[in-house]
Amino acid sequence: MERRSFLQKLLLVAAGLGLSPGWLRGRAERYGQALAAGSRKLAVLIGINRYLGEGSALQGCLTDVELQRELLLYRFGFDPADILTLTDGAATPAGIQSAFAEHLGGQGHTAETVVVQFSGYGQWRLGSAPNCWQPVLLLSGSEGVAAMELDSFFRLLEGLGTAQITTLLDCGFTYVSPSVRGNLQLRSRPPAAISDSKDSVPLARSEPQRVWPSPPKGLLISATTPQDLAAEAAWPGFYAGVLTYLLTQYLWETTPATRLLVAFNQVVSRRELGLFACQRPTLEGKDTARHIHPYFLMPTPAGVSGVVQEVKGNRAQVWLGGIPSAALCGLQPGTLLVPIPADPSASSPTPLLMRSRSGLLAQVQMASPEGQLPPVGTPLREQLRGLSSTLKLLVGLEENLGRIEKVDLTNAIAGYSWMETANPRERQVDCLLGRITPEMAAAFRTPSRWRERSDTLLKPLEVNSYSLFWPGRELLLNSCGPAGEAAAMAVQRLAPRLAHLLAAKRLRTTLNAVSSSLAVVAELAVKGRAANRASGTESLAPSLAARLVQSATSAPAEVGMQRFTRGDPLHLTLCNNSEQDLYGYLLLIDPTGQLHLLAPLPQDNFTTPLRLEAKSSLTLPPLPEVDGELRSAVSSDLLTCHAQGLTELLFVASTRPLSASLEALKAMARKLGVARSPMLLNGPLEWTQTLLEELTQRASDRASGTESLGDPDLRWLDPAQSITLSLTYLLV
Predict the structure, then answer these.
(1) Is the pLDDT confidence value at 11 over 60?
(2) What pTM was computed for the model?
């Protein structure tokens, strides 16, 4: 019996018995889950890193396959035998056709749900019709690179025996040189003729007509639009597609209430995607996605940080797929993970102590002699996050720099103990340092889709001058220096900006919307705009909001990162649904990468941190009709008065009063003579260090189990006592 028919019959029978609608919905959902668990779920995951004779090898496609496989196994209940992986040389046209015919097609009549992923190169190729270009997927071949037209790939999907298909394409088709951009590598190749894939055909000269095929049945998630770029990136200790990693990480931490369109909207609103403005993921089938769960399946109830992957003797290997990417870079050995019991009323299990970590894999052991390691497949959540107080800023040097000036810049950066240089092709960097090229200067004289007005830049870019860039080579605004500047002088000039970048990086290592037990929800809305904009609001803590706020479970009318106009009366509402008062700060990171304090307000003389009382809410800036006396004290454009571009809000709160960081803010305000918000932080490293010491506790002071790790700087962040939330939006 199909699941839908079963649920309909259950509802009719129960209604005839006079049972309440709430009871009906709850029982129907539980029975539906049980029925779905017994149905067949199949997947084909394709990833190609190595292409014979085809430019630079990709590094993240096999990781994409692993990311998706672990998610399907441990979050959505797939059987290992029902997941077929085709990697590198096995991913040939014949191999893919066989996988569809035998693995999916041969058993398709028993499969309720199918997941198909492709990670690799895409390309525009000239077809048989004159001046007609078609998208193709580049595959492995016996004598080099083979290709499959995207239309042919879609026809394979159309031939499957179920409509509950989720297809994920983590590749691009449009190519713009260079293919390697700092931490990013494009997943597309230059356009070519089908007769000879190695002969490039310039698109600009031929003025081609691009033919994009109709999407297949089910849902299609693409890394980017046909005309935009798609990339893979270096993450902390591994490479992966930008879309695949952000999507799978979010699906580890999401709750059962979340619908696919909400999940997709949260992913495309992430800061990591916002920094690479040329990649715009798409979702075909939005009407269906409004009503169904990701992959047409309901995940296990609780959002998780990781899962036990393997047990050997007194050690276990853990997959950390649910840790936020910004927090992963600071995650240290000494972190405690606790198994999530199937029965919430069961006694608390013994935590696991992380001994080492490489990328997303961690080696753990029991934190105490009592108890035994949990079995493979056991979900885990952070109990105490191990952080280092000496986390450094990693600066990548651009390829357009000469050998001698790279040495000069490296030596100048080495003069600062809190930052160092790193190769962006080997490690995830926080920013790039390079020179402004003539092409960059010309591009920034033309308004982009982020900048609708040409006055965003305070001054024209000086060609050949030193400047900072985000890891994907997006210019970091207002960091360009004068032409002819010496390398050492450039580093000295940029050091204050780099300090802001590191302060923000250290704060992001405390992001813990899922693992924190402090139930805080935050929503953004423009005064006078419909409060529901078919949501009209955006949640800082999507998983918590999905559980606590009904609007967060309904699909937004528009997909993508929220956009607001400079001067909009934008308001943030914070709701504390926990039983404890919270004390914290609201910070804003503007498009230049600098940290500003928004609350508490300097005009309140910093009497207390921002206080969020238990079971209450507050709005920032205060609404005049609620607090009339604050009408002139706080501008209604507090959240929209800065430069245009990517903006991030951080709400950092604790159950403790945070008195030391508050005193530091008082001294800072007096020194700067600042009496109103927002206040640009002066000495951001010192202040964030004080705040982090208040949010955390030295591990050696709390337990003896970490003494053998040999890190005297290890500190523990307790998610039961602090919470950090993040939200990004575009100001245009």
Answers:
(1) no
(2) 0.88
